[in-house]
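ERR on first pass: missing label on line 2. Operator R.T. fixed the label and resubmitted. Corrected input:
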Amino acid sequence: MQNFYSLLRFLLFLVLLPVGSEFLHARPAVPDTLLKDASPADLKDVINSYRDKKAVLVNVWATWCVPCVEEFPEIVKLQRAYPDQLQVIFISADFTESRDRALNFLKEHKVDWTTYFKTGKDQPFIEAISKKWSGALPFSQVISKDGSVVGSWEQKADYETFEHYIKKQ
Amino acid sequence: MRVMTKKRLWYVIPIILGMSLLAFLPIKGEKASDELEIGAKIPFADLKVEEVSGQMLTLKEVAREKGLLVNFSCNTCPWVARWEDRYNPIAKLAKENKIGMIALNPNSGYRNRGESMKDMQERARKSNYQFYYALDKDSRLAQAFGATHTPHIFLFDGDLKLVYRGAIDDNASSAKNVEQPYLKNAIKALGAGVEINPKTTKSLGCTIKWPA
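pass 2 clean. output:
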């Protein structure tokens, strides 16, 4: 009987081992709010919340936008390279019915911080992000710690371009 | 020794000046957004563009008594697909107001990715376009207009001066739920000879695929 309990304990240990290991060595858990609906006012608040703390890279993307999808992994890489200096704020401009597609895309690219989903009409959204932005996707904007814009553009960029602006602030 | 130093300066100064100027050049991936200003004259009015019928046209030839509507559009953009159900009604409204209409495809970088003349012909046939649809070779017109995305609207008056620029309306997803039909209002105002308000609006769209 004692042998049976020892065996049971050993089996339980084997079962729980990977769980414990995962718990100890896991990357930060994917937040519940991996993709959060946001109004233009919400987005302004989020961007401003990093003032005096970190530089911000705002990137507006969509799953249907080929150049957005092409540059996306580079931006994720950038966030991993500069975790203390930079906060990437991804904003999905997908159509409402493609929300799940956007969420799956974020998971596929192992994004593990809160990102945002555009709600409401285009014009107030565009103006809340940047007066200089015409509405073309993708759009990127780098804001320094003191809140000043150090770069913004409407085309796809490579890692070096993003990094250039991050280092510039 | 002093002569040598002076000689060297002749080489060094231009190099330093040249390098300083490089700092002002836009870096890869960046393109200035300089849309045509309201009141500006239409650029390249006499430039010939090839239409899906094979006909060669100029913007001046497409313009009518009251003006010209230019829509930078394409085949591969989901935003165009959403707004496309409004294209023919807008062409009809423009015609009623004696305004010519042309859609220009500026996506030179994607001519082998769904934006060729053949693809355009197919799209015009499938969607039964009731307006000209022409290829903007090397994106020259888009560059000159400062167009950035598709669809991107530029409306000119009878003197071919820009009177409205920007969005078709405020709801790409549903024609039924449009609250602000910006372009239709602008066309009606232009036809009636009254002031257009607003003159500029913004909407999301697909970035123009510039030539490599």
